[in-house]
């Protein structure tokens, strides 16, 4: 006897957005061992906290989600795919965040999409390629994202700004190249959101965990990573996503503050000019 087709019921978009991510299937002895590194680095003085981040997230959520926004989920909440490298892990990110939240964005009338970098359109030519972008319906790149494995970046949630500045240099380089104000850095288990605050500095969100369930109270440890991505989509769905300049290589050299490096070069040039005059 043929099994009767049962259509998927509609699900409250708020419940999906406020829910935690499915835990990935990972076995320590069956995964990559080496840590992916980058030559792009910042110093800790270039980072500051993104104040009131969780409060901003909840404000976006309240304004966007309601009983009228409902979707048919296209994913399960239980993982069956085992991961052991960055490509596999980012595939799960794409399914559990990119796919799910793109449906939510659509139901909230946000023309924002997750995509591979090559799909996006940028007026800037460069050789640095982020793992993820957020783009609009005209393929304009509005945010950059970088993914790493949580077993090689276990300290991403720690408050120590020194290693964080080192790791986030890669994302800062992409954001500078693309002239975008916003970005995200994720290991799936932990995600940090970035907002450029000046030519040489960035604000960093608190660590947002894959296991966090949004609470009615919100606030610290009260917003899910999906809820945070809804806020990011709302931020980049305006002209504020643009950053007016590309600062260049000094931004992510990781030795001195960019202003100090620039001052050193000017002093060196002046010294050479004085020598020539003599």
Characterization of the model:
Strands 3, 6, 7, 8, 9, 10, 11 and 12 form an 8-stranded mixed beta sheet that branches. The protein has a two-stranded antiparallel sheet with strand order 1-4. The relative contact order is 0.18. A hairpin with a 4-residue loop joins β7 (132-136) and β8. The chain has 278 residues and is of the alpha/beta class. It has helices at residues 13-17, 53-64, 86-107, 161-178, 225-236, 258-277; strands at residues 11-12, 25-26, 47-49, 70-71, 82-83, 112-115, 132-136, 141-147, 182-186, 190-196, 202-204, 208-209. α3 (86-107) packs across α5 (225-236). It is globular.
List the helices and strands and how they pair.
Elements: E1 11-12, H1 13-17, E2 25-26, E3 47-49, H2 53-64, E4 70-71, E5 82-83, H3 86-107, E6 112-115, E7 132-136, E8 141-147, H4 161-178, E9 182-186, E10 190-196, E11 202-204, E12 208-209, H5 225-236, H6 258-277
Parallel strand pairs: 2-5, 3-11, 8-9
Antiparallel strand pairs: 1-4, 6-7, 7-8, 9-10, 10-11, 10-12
Helix pairs in contact: 2-5, 3-5
